[in-house]
Amino acid sequence: MGEVSLETSAYAKIILHAAKYPHCAVNGVLLADGSNIKSGNKNQDLDIVDSIPLFHHSHYVSPMAEIALTQIELQAQQDNRVIAGYYAACENFRDNTVEKCPGQKIAEKIVEYFPSAVFIVVDNKRMVQNLDTPAIKIHKYSEGKWKPKDANKVLFQSQYVLETVSHLLQRRVQKDLVDFDNYLDDSTQDWTNLGIEKLIASINASNAIDKEKDSE
Amino acid sequence: MSFNNYEDLTRNEVVDLLRQWRENNERKGEDILTLFETIIPVLNKLGSEKYLILEQVIYAALDCHYYETAMWWIMMLNVEFPGSMRVMRYKAACLEAEEKYDEALEILDNIIQSDDTNAAARKRRICILKAQGLVNDAIKALVDYLKMFMSDMEAWQELSELYLQVQEYSKAAFCAEELILHQPHNHLMHQRLADIRYTMGGIENMELAKSYYCQALKLNPENKRAKLGLFLVTNALVSQYKAAGGARRSDAWRLAQWAQRGAAPDLSAAMLQLAITD
């Protein structure tokens, strides 16, 4: 119960967003697959399939956050997904706790509608080009506070996640990531980042082929 | 703008691009270093622009944590300008990047002691406080700085953001107002103040937010954030005035309709969700 697993593209987008703006705090929401979700329950198993990067500035003012959340909610309903969490990275290298992250009110709002929501904090100290441990910490909401969940045990859908994301960072794919702020500045940009999803899907596919070859 | 293929640029274009980034205060550490490699051969022919570019490169190197590169160029500047306080400031910045805050503060204090009017050294002190996570001390130091150097736009902006970080919205709004006084024709300043007022909530703040969003749109009709902000504010006002009636409500209502039509058409579904209909 209460297992949280992350798809490659969700994890990748979080790390790419943080890498694109190393000098800013960044935040975004997490979407989970809506098939097995019953909205009122706490401690459900979550399968986080996607993350939407939101902002890299003006974190403490709310109007754009409201617009963004409404739009994401609408899109999520169409794709049978649920807003199931929030991620943030702090501006200061040494801040790695929930309290120092921006946008906690957004996270609290998400938890109001979805009690099993998670809060992912990006661990600045573990963000390196060659990732050997996941650079995130997951928190769950209980008794009015965000408590860290099972430290060091982050479940990924694919075993190649860390290599894939390291590869993306080395190829500087973060330049092509679009967050909601970029979309507000230029409405031709795609905040769902389909391009990056396709890239990750193709890397996953070639990993799967290699794996089959290896096991032959 | 994204020059993904830097090999295509001529040396003059590179220098122009670096100048553009300098003027817009863009923080593109890696790109600056890559471009700089291409113009090292012609550096001496650039005249006084050479030193501005070197300064830009030093900060870019510090941003990417190439400390030896940065020190190399700082030493080059030192050779050309021995004993210069400006160069000492870069040495302090290098120490700051390496997190040797005490030594950096020592150098900066020396600069300030010998030159009371050196604004940049004082600002770097405040940056060090912020880097150490001492936000409240940084705020105090910045307030003292602004008492002396009241027309420093950058400082007012930073103070506004620091206040927002500690959730002192009214003080942040005050700083944003100072920014508008300094740059009354800049639509971003009006929009920022409107954002802060909207976040503060309450009818008066909503009315103020509404007028600032309108001003921002007058200055730049394409400002998407202002359009969306105006939409949100007018909807909030219409629902507030539901109980009352009369002129204010119908004004807000008309503005809401205008905002709904004017704001991005692709967001129309989302807008309808948020919109209040009679």
Automatic annotation (TrEMBL), chain A:
* Residue ranges occupied by any MPN domain in the UniProt entry: 4-142
Q: Which PROSITE patterns match?
A: MPN
Q: Name one Pfam family in it.
A: UPF0172
Q: Transmembrane residues, as ranges?
A: none
User: In terms of domain of life, where is this protein from?
Assistant: Eukaryota
Q: Which family does it belong to?
A: Belongs to the EMC8/EMC9 family.
Q: What is this protein identified as?
A: ER membrane protein complex subunit 8/9 homolog
Report the source organism.
Answer: Bicyclus anynana (Squinting bush brown butterfly)
Taxonomic lineage is: Eukaryota, Metazoa, Ecdysozoa, Arthropoda, Hexapoda
UniProtKB/TrEMBL annotation, chain B:
What SMART domains does the entry give? TPR
Gene3D superfamilies (alphabetical): Tetratricopeptide repeat domain
Cellular localization per UniProt:
Endoplasmic reticulum membrane
Report keywords, A-Z. Endoplasmic reticulum, Membrane, Repeat, TPR repeat
Membrane disposition: Peripheral membrane protein
Pfam families hit by this protein: TPR_EMC2
Annotated EMC2 TPR-like domain residues: 88-196
Q: Which residues cross the membrane?
A: none
Q: Which family does it belong to?
A: Belongs to the EMC2 family.
Assembly and partners? Component of the ER membrane protein complex (EMC).
UniProt function note: Part of the endoplasmic reticulum membrane protein complex (EMC) that enables the energy-independent insertion into endoplasmic reticulum membranes of newly synthesized membrane proteins.
Q: What is this protein called?
A: ER membrane protein complex subunit 2
Gene that this polypeptide is encoded by: LOC112047916
